[in-house]
Design brief:
Layout: H1 9-19, E1 26-28, H2 39-50, E2 57-59, E3 64-66, H3 68-80, H4 89-98, H5 109-124, H6 126-134, H7 145-161, E4 165-167, E5 173-174, H8 177-199, E6 221-222, H9 227-239, H10 251-261, E7 262-263, H11 275-284, E8 286-288, E9 291-293, H12 295-298
Parallel strand pairs: 1-3, 6-7
Antiparallel strand pairs: 2-4, 3-5, 8-9
Length: 315
């Protein structure tokens, strides 16, 4: 039984290592973009991307392609849904202006975000995932989850064996055959375990009344500052050599570790906001020409609190 994303951590880390290989070719993927930012249209695209079993087959690829719409999706979607903010005319102008200078190689981390969001929805929002899949035209009139999952499973295993084909996981992002297959392997394992639950027979269960339980709950420390201040502290500790450099491809994992140690409840803007994801967005900053910057540190209204930390002396 798959209870959380940690079950797939090894495969996800393998994907991150592939993505941050300097020899990986990253191209601009030409896809339809948002002409307006209406909530209905954005939510529909989000659901089709992250809450749906991908089934389209394409020729195998050795390069990665990133489209501009993929880099805009999260920002716009969470503004419209989580923060209940409309996309202002000023923000629209900034988005359209950024499209003129789009460099796909500066947005490798968006693929990390897509994979993380996809697996999150699969595991924690499977009811919506299945509902959206069953509404697709190819499953019209079929309401049997087992039949649908078996059909998808057969398709995935066939593609996995074919070196010339791969599943188009994300319409707005092109992946290599190697990365696509790693995601496919995770989907296959999830489907197989789901089918086991749906078809299990009570006669085959060993009803043992003993339960082995390991306590692994981490005691969280309440953070009394803002997320920006915690982000500044981490970045200062890194720059002053008190903690190891946060490497590309490990930033998401690092952010998750910090939010497991620190309780950021007091920093949430509303009860529906995801403090772990918003902290990661801060720590991710912006990556351009192999240089990472942090816009929140440069804002006029942000007062630095930890710049006085002394640099660690080299031994």
């Amino acid at each position: 039984m798959i209870l959380n994303k940690l079950h797939f951590q090894k495969k996800i880390e393998n994907i991150y290592q592939i993505l941050w290989n300097e020899n990986l070719k990253i191209t601009s993927l030409q896809k339809m973009t948002f002409k307006s930012f209406k909530e209905k249209e954005v939510v529909k695209f989000y659901n089709s991307t992250f809450k749906n079993f991908p089934l389209e087959i394409e020729n195998s690829s050795e390069e990665v392609g990133i489209s501009i719409i993929s880099t805009e999706l999260f920002d716009v979607y969470y503004d419209l849904t989580t923060h209940n903010r409309r996309v202002t005319p000023e923000k629209e102008r900034n988005i359209f202006e950024n499209r003129k200078n789009f460099e796909p190689k500066n947005h490798t981390e968006i693929i990390d975000d897509f994979i993380d969001e996809f697996m999150h929805c699969l595991i924690y929002q499977y009811d919506e995932f299945l509902k959206n899949t069953m509404e697709q035209h190819y499953f019209v009139g079929i309401n049997d989850e087992v039949k649908i999952l078996l059909s998808i499973l057969n398709r995935y295993k066939s593609v996995l064996k074919d070196k010339t084909k791969q599943i188009d996981i994300f319409w707005s992002i092109k992946l290599t055959k190697q990365i696509s297959d790693l995601i496919l392997e995770m989907l296959i394992e999830f489907i197989e375990q789901r089918l086991n639950l749906l078809t299990i027979s009570i006669e085959n269960i060993n009803l043992d009344n003993q339960l082995n339980y390991v306590e692994n709950e981490i005691f969280k420390i309440d953070w009394n500052g803002t997320q920006q201040e915690l982000g500044e502290l981490i970045l200062e500790l890194e720059s002053k050599k008190w903690i190891a450099e946060i490497k590309n491809g490990e930033r998401k994992k690092f952010a998750n570790s910090i939010t497991k140690i620190f309780n950021l409840t007091k920093t949430k803007k509303n009860k529906h906001s995801d403090s772990s994801n918003s902290f990661y967005q801060l720590l991710k900053g912006e990556y351009e020409n192999k240089l990472r910057t942090y816009p929140f540190l440069e804002k006029e209204n942000y007062e630095k609190k930890f710049s006085g930390i002394i640099k660690k002396k080299e031994k």
